[in-house]
Amino acid sequence: MDDPGQALAVRYQMGRDPADFERLVLHYRDRVYRVIYRLVGDADEAMDLTQEAMLRVHRSLDQWDHRAAFFTWLYRLAVNLAIDHHRRRSRDRAVPYGEDFPFADPRPGEVERYDEDEERDVLLLRVRRAILDLPEAQRAIVVLRHYEHLPLARIAEVRGVALGTVKSTLFAAFRSLRRALEAEGKEKV
Length: 189
Description:
Elements: H1 4-15, H2 18-40, H3 43-60, H4 70-92, H5 118-133, H6 136-147, H7 152-159, H8 163-188
Helix pairs in contact: 1-2, 2-3, 2-4, 3-4, 4-7, 5-8, 6-8, 7-8
């Protein structure tokens, strides 16, 4: 996969032209936001964490080896930032699931609309809640695989784990999701 962001990152790393960094941010901002949002479940926090991720990229780009995929390095940084934030927040308070928990995945400047019936929206909300309740490692792999559509090998690179670990973690996550959704369904009957 040719990633135009790779060339932007190399160009910025070599010349430190602010315009190159701005283009780099514009190229990746929405993708990073979506990943972080799906990991923390709060649009405002996701926006703040996306900005923090971009600041960290700016401060630590010298640590990135341009022979490696920039995309992988950036996603690892963003996922770890979101997981750390979620851990801190979970220690401080329970994650609220109020009426304002969004059905659509908000993106800056874009609102997704569903034409399906209310039952589908309720199911999507239940799935998103169940994903947020997964342990951090499972949640990260589910998000990267099924929302970002990354191949398992790329997820292993992003997470810094073996391919077998990604596969077993994904299997465990789906087992946990199935149990959570079945249990919630039984409670409503």
